[in-house]
Amino acid sequence: MRPSKTEAQKLILEAEKLNPGPWVNHSFNTAKAAEKIASFIPEINKEKAYICGLLHDIGRREGIFDLHHTIYGYEYLKALGYEEIGKICLTHSFVNHDIYDFNGNFDCSEKEINFLDNYIKNVIYDDYDILIQLCDYLALPTGFCIIEKRMIDVALRRGINDLTISKWKKVFQIKDKIEDRIGESIYKILNI
User: Fold this and answer.
1) What whole-number distance in Å separates Cα of residue 17 and Cα of residue 89?
2) Neighbours of 152 (CB within 10 A)
3) SS3 (DSSP) at 152
4) Per-residue pLDDT tens for 12-44?
């Protein structure tokens, strides 16, 4: 079960009231990128792609958190009956199935870290997980951007670690695979 596009927009606007910030515009831009790219892939429902993009950071409604926002978003959407969409909250930050390539604070309990580590190591990423992982790197609060710009944006705010380069390489592999699949540059689709 998933919320409608209108319901998802209502959820994000409610979240903005609780924790206003640039993450909200980033979420809208991620959603728009996902919808545009999905329109070129018949197997991906573009409305579902939009909803996943819009709600991938919904855990930020709780406040200013780093890693914890992934778990909180999943738990929040699951409690609303939207576990399928909540999965995106957990998967969007971990392109390599490794929580330790996350740049930022591990502001979670030991129990939450163990849950997340086990979940990410064992989950199978579907088309929506992969698409949102890519679109997260195409969206700044100000609009669409090339992937490298978003990578630098995150690195300047959160730093890097020993796994950052492998994470970046994986994002470019995802980009290449999606472009091969659609036969078009994602930058052209997004007018970047």
Assistant:
1) 19
2) 11
3) helix
4) 999 999 999 999 999 999 999 999 999 999 999
CB 154 within 8 A of CB 39: no
CB 82 within 8 A of CB 123: no
Q: Are 53 and 30 in contact (CB under 8 A)?
A: yes
pLDDT tens digits, 90-136: 999 999 999 999 988 999 999 999 999 999 999 999 999 999 999 99
Q: What does the alpha-carbon distance between residue 136 and residue 117 come to, in Å, rounded to a whole number?
A: 20
Q: Output the six-digit token pair for 17.
A: 């009231």
- Contacts of residue 10, Cβ cutoff 8 Å, sequence gap at least 6: none
Q: How many residues does the chain have?
A: 192
